[in-house]
Amino acid sequence: MDAALLFSGGKDSALAALALDRFYDVTLVTATFGITDDWRHARRAAERLDSPFRTLDLDPDVAADAVDRMVDDGYPRNGIQAVHEHALERVAALDVAAVADGTRRDDRVPTVSRATAQSLEDRHGVDYLAPLTGFGRGAVDRLVDTHLDVRVGPSEAIPRADYEAELRALLADREGDDAVEAVFPDHEQTVVRGRA
Fold this sequence. Notes:
The chain has one domain (about 1-195): HUPs (Rossmann fold). The two termini are about 25 Å apart. The chain has 8 helices and 7 strands; from the N terminus they run E-H-E-H-E-H-H-E-H-E-H-E-H-H-E. The chain is of the alpha/beta class and about 200 residues long. The strands form 2 sheets. A 5-stranded parallel sheet has the order 3-2-1-4-5, with helices on both faces. A two-stranded antiparallel ribbon has the order 6-7. The longest helix is centred in the middle third of the chain and has 16 residues, at about 75-90. Helix 2 (about 40-50) links the parallel strand 2 and strand 3.
């Protein structure tokens, strides 16, 4: 069976790919607005995992709306959530049996509610898989340490292809670098360099 996994090139989506690989023919899919070419970092990570890779275009209006929402809210959660749900809809429209992501049990954003998952499955005739939802951050980190080689650093220094990178770039272009610092909290990101 074919599964399309939303893939940023980071540890969570890479670990989800490893978990699903035993049961599905997994293609790593990086959804992009075309704002940056950061998707190339995800492609490199997919190559290092020896996994099939593709990109998927997202609607630029969704990015613009997400940035508006983040500016209004003063934080990124709702904007990133809207983008993730849009990406799931787009990947569910592919000709696959299952769609997946790397969301964890203790993620603040993005999250996928039971109702959202069931709606996605019913409307698109796919299975929604979230293999890390039973794992907290500590368990994920221990599994990553055992199975993946990752680089860790602050968001602005780690080259990876996720919604945050493109939304940061759009926000900076529209509102300036100070707006990015005001909206996005400091936190670390990861990029996969290969298997351990």
